[in-house]
Amino acid sequence: MPLPTLLVIDMQRAFDDSSWGERNNQDAEAHVGEILAVWRELGAPLVHVRHESASPTGLFRRGTSAFEFKPEAQPLPGETILDKRVNSAFIGTDLLEHLRSTGAEHVVIVGLTTDHCCSTTARMASNLGFETWFVADATATHARADFDAETMHRTALASLDGEFARVMSTAEAIGHLHAMASSI
To answer: Would the pTM of this model clear 0.90, i.e. be above it?
Structure first.
């Protein structure tokens, strides 16, 4: 069985812009960095997904510093990078073909934001037949409408868990990866 493929979703500097407002889980980037280091150490597959604004005034415009990856999630030479223009990492990219060609059976979701691009990608991954792990402490989101950021995060996790994904912590994901690697 192949090791799970880590999908690092939209870990971009655009999310540092104050226009997003209140955010939960200020440790998400550190957890992404931790999980990324273990995936690399074990030679497990990973894909960096980056959002590109379709609008010329969007925050995620190619060529701006906001489009760039955050320091904790900088791709290394040779690592796969896919650019998307919608919430799902599967639409308008060759992610599905990439996963199928590598024999992937599991995907692991980390990144920004919990309730938008990470959730949408997790739901599609599950619908496409991948066992999906969603790393709760390696994702974060912002307040929306009348709901604070932590409520948005927890509601998104509750909607995913058991239906579209196994929601777990960074430590649990790393433990599962080590267990799978030792059985190969």
So the answer is: yes
